[in-house]
Amino acid sequence: MRYFNYLTPDEEKVLFYIPPTSFYNDSHKDILAHSIGAALYMPATRPTFAEDIAFGKLEGLVSVVLDLEDAVGENEVHEAEESLVNQMNKLSALIELGILNAENLPLLFVRVRNENQLNYLIERLEDNITLLTGIVFPKFTMENGEAYFQPLENYNDEKPSSAPTLYGLPILESGAIIYKESRFQTLQGIKDILTKYKDLVLNVRIGATDFSSLFGLRRSSEMTIYDIAPIRDCVADIINIFGRVDASYVISGPVWEYFPEKGLIREVIMDKENGLIGKTIIHPTHIKPVQSLYTVTHEEYADATSIISNNNGDHGVIKSAYANKMNEIKPHLSWAKRILLRSHIYGVLHEQQQYFGLLSKQDRAYV
């Protein structure tokens, strides 16, 4: 899989100073954690997702979350489980027939309802589970965290060594996390669990819709989650606990639940400014705008490479190549490393290019 593979070679040459590189579900964990990008949620009841993927019906798609939780009604659970198993069987068959190249398979995730369902799916999916990159754990708490990770750890201990690691992606969205009186104890308890299973934690995700519901709030389509005071306050604390350089967890931004994209673009920009990368989306028109925003500008790349190349003790501060700022070597070093990692996945734009250049005329009409 590779970002922006819908571009022609000539278009790519015009747009990119350094093009994106390929990755797969057995790539290094750091690459995968930053590669999720715009994760499109699909109900697990969707009867055509295997064909949609195999025949490229969702242009630009790189990661998918097949949802067995909120997108599935209480009376649809068994139907959704059977649909998921059947669609995974179809994907496997399409790969075996050579209709779908496994290297073009998006990163696939399943959001389960609970730990019991996770155990059930591990058994039912059999060898097809190797097509998945991870399992999304909703409403992750101190109380259920071990129960989610134990079967995941058991699976990874018992799988063939040639099979890719199956990762866990906890969603922080419970009342104990956002309520002020319990927040820090809860976050610390969750961090203790994630530390224990750190090799299996691909991503920490934020469930802002559930947070908002506890206050009877919902951001409008022109606002961002950072404009909602109690949610912004909680997100700041999540970043403080899990986003520190020494913690080294990748945190993804909350779901965008509207079709219009004006507020979405502002929110992704705010996500990036706060060190979050990755966005849950609910409509295919969101794929390209969100992914395009994760590309690295030429100026960012020039700053990052300069900082890293001068990290030899000879300089404390240097003028940027664009002569518009000072780059401090030690304070900006961690930022520079993150930029280079992102540039590897999403590419570096040419000096005069902006992310809008990655969108087609039809895509631009939605933005």
TrEMBL record:
Q: Identify which cofactors the protein needs according to its UniProt entry.
A: Mg(2+)
Q: Does the keyword section mention Lyase?
A: yes
UniProt GO MF annotations: lyase activity
Q: Known InterPro entries for this protein?
A: C-C_Bond_Lyase-like, Citrate_lyase_beta/mcl1/mcl2, Pyrv/PenolPyrv_kinase-like_dom, Pyrv_kinase-like_dom_sf
Domain of life of the organism encoding this protein:
Bacteria
Going by the UniProt record, its keywords in alphabetical order are: Lyase, Magnesium, Metal-binding
Is Metal-binding set as a keyword in this record? yes
Matching PANTHER family, A to Z? CITRATE LYASE SUBUNIT BETA, LYASE BETA SUBUNIT, PUTATIVE (AFU_ORTHOLOGUE AFUA_4G13030)-RELATED
Name of this protein? HpcH/HpaI aldolase/citrate lyase family protein
Organism, by scientific name, is Paenibacillus alba
